[in-house]
Amino acid sequence: MVDLDGGDWFKAFAVAAPLFASSLAVSYDVGFFYGAGIGFFTFFSLTEHIVFALQAIPFALVPAFTIVGLIAVTWWGYHKIVRDSRDAVEKARQMSPEERETFLAKLKRQVRRNNLIDPFVQGALFVGALWLFVRHSYTGAFLVLVSQVIAKMVYPIDRWESKNFRYVIALFCVTAGWATAFSLGYERAEAILSSTAPTDKIFVEGKELSARLIRGGERGVLFKSFGTGKPSFVRWEKITRIDAL
Q: Which of the four pLDDT bands, split at 50, 70 and 90, describes residue 245?
């Protein structure tokens, strides 16, 4: 197992980062087809899905940077708390008994105040996540919940002394990244299917179809038909022309 506390972390990151980005793109592609219609997934070859995944990397970078940001903030918070705790202990040692008692009483009041405010903050975040979910912003809602879970997992901070716990946090963040990319793809497909304005005209065997292209492959084209309001797939041999509006 790689020692993340030693010099191997950079090598591990250099190897894992491209693999993680690729896996996020694949997860995005699968989520996209779940939103557009998972039955259409098999209409495209493995090679085409790889191309779709590569095209999805810019979208997959959103959850990647978000998860990295959560890890960075969590790691920074951990070290800040440890540093502040050491400074507080050192400061208390240099105080007189009366000053130390006043100082400790002040810290206890701060802890009680934080414990009192925390449930309201968590409740507000949970309500915010529900509001985002109702508005079909699944990615935003999921990331809010993930941030809450991470915040609960990392405290008390003495858990970080365990290397196994740090690996659990890393595994959770990777899994959360996959889930976030999946929801982002699903959300994107849902946005396309809920669009109200066509972007293309597809001429199929003498018929003109108002449509919005979703995916094009070797076998044919997947599009939203504004005639039926549903996704449809037409093979290339039946298509005579596609015009952009």
A: confident
CA dist., res. 26 & res. 216, Å (int): 17
pLDDT tens-digit readout, 17-67: 677 777 888 888 899 999 888 888 888 888 888 888 777 777 666 666 766
Min mean pLDDT across 37-46, 115-124, 151-160, 223-232 is at 151-160
Q: Residue 102 carries which DSSP code?
A: H
Residues of CATH 2.30.30 domain(s) within the chain? 200-244
Residue among 29, 36, 31 nearest 191 (CA): 36
Task: Give CA–CA dist 178/24, Å, rounded.
Answer: 5
Report CA 66 to chain centroid distance, whole Å: 6
CA 233 to chain centre: 30
168 residue type, one letter: V
CATH C-level class of 200-244: mainly beta
Provide the whole-model pTM: 0.72
Which residue type, as a one-letter code, is found at position 30?
Answer: V
Strand ordering across the sheet containing 200-204: 230-235, 220-225, 207-216, 200-204, 239-244
Task: Average the pLDDT over 191-218 and give the result.
Answer: 87
Give the number of other CB atoms < 10 A from CB of residue 111: 10
* 224 class by beta-carbon count within 10 Å (0-12 exposed, 13-18 middle, 19+ buried): buried
**Cα(74)–Cα(69) distance, integer angstroms:** 8
